[in-house]
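Let us work through a complete example step by step.
Step 1: write down the sequence.
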Amino acid sequence: MAPLPDHTRLSAQGRPLIITADPELLEQLISLLASLGVEPTVVLGPGAAGPDWATARVVLVGADVAIGTPPSWPLPAREDVVVVAGSRGSSGPVAAALGAACTFRLPAEAAGLRAVLAAALSGAGRAACVGVIGGRGGAGASTLAAALALTGSRLWPSVLVDADPLGGGIDLILGAEAVGGLRWPDLSASRAPLNPAGLREALVRVDELRVLSWDRLSPPSESGAWMTAVLGGVVGTHQLVVVDLPRQIDSAALAALDFTRTVLVVVPADLRAAAAAGRVAAGLTGHCQDVRLVVRGPAPGGLDPAAIADALELPLAGSLRAEPGLAAALERGEPPGRSGRGPLAAFCRRLLAELIPVVAAA
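Step 2: predict the structure and record it as tokens.
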């Protein structure tokens, strides 16, 4: 990735702001920004940030910055804060207190951080990133993830990321298993640095949707660094990112959760599924602040979706009615929600309008 073009050179007021007193981390961050042709403003602590906190295009906060509970942070909240830890530091407490957009560890995750910075500094902004996870096996989470991404792709550049190496490949749900394009095994075999624009063009394409899927032959592997690099790139080249998460949270899923704004837990409307979903939801605690429940019908025992949500202490994103013919359509390779008709497509439109308010205006 080349340095930012001349028209993106920033005035002193709009420069990235670095808040850290860690000399090693500071050197790495300055070097990373220099590779993008950008000079940052540097302060040692939040008290010295002054007006730069509000005017900086992006803020990088070192994990060394000493803070206690969130009220002790002396600066107003802002969305585009990135917490960065060195090889020996821990970003968790700082990130949680600040409500950081994402976290990175250097030098291992430098590629992902560079991609996020390039997107922020070029004015591309950050995508809305939504995770979908099954409350139990066979809950229909992958189907909802695919339909949600496909619905969103009609409005903006959207990408569907398969984070479950044991799921059989989400391209299969979209009927795209024979479609050429980059998949996870191709990506992990490459040693070349990720180029976000090139990555978008190389992915599997279904209508206007880009898809990064697992295949069915390669041995499963997990790599938080690769997931961070990929999502760090696609958030700058897409406006909607949907991640199909595995029920067993591995390092790649944890890296994906660093980017997700909202996670949807999909649960069938039966007692055993609700019990399983409780354990899945508990595993998300501390990794995503906005976890919501989607209850999928039918309800053989008449369980009320609101009652399930109350029992699991999760907000109800909505209930999804059974769709006649959906299973048969998936077997024929018809992507879910493609027609724009039926309960699933209607649910996705409503959910996107709630999660991303600009959709309502569109």
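Step 3: interpret the result. The chain has a mean pLDDT of 83.
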